[in-house]
Amino acid sequence: MSTAELREELKIMIDKESDTSVLEALRVLLNKSGAQDSIKEELVSRAIKSEEDIAANRVYSRDEFENILTQRLKS
Questions:
Q1: 10 φ, ψ (degrees, to nearest 5)
Q2: Mean pLDDT, residues 9-33
């Protein structure tokens, strides 16, 4: 079944559905899928930035990191 055929079948099924809880469950499912795509994009973006930082030697030693963290926790 092609994507277009599947979409059309789902549209017909949704139009016929009268159970609000089923429709709400579909809405949550579809929204969750979109949210996961956004999360994936954000994680990939952060990974790329991290790789760029490492390549440019923008890194901290463990001691430097611990000092920064300690200072932030005191604030």
A1: -65, -40
A2: 91
> How much is the mean pLDDT over the chain?
91
Distance CA 66, CA 72 (A): 10
For the chain, the residue count is: 75
Residue 21, token pair as written in the block: 């809880």
- The Cα 35–Cα 30 span in angstroms is 9
In 51-75, which positions are buried (b, 16+ CB within 10 angstroms) versus exposed (e)?
Answer: eeeeeeeeeeeeeeeeeeeeeeeee
Helices (H), 1-75: 3-16, 20-55, 62-74
* Cβ atoms of 45 and 53 closer than 8 Å: no
Quote the tokens at residue 40: 């994936």
State residue 36's pLDDT score.
81
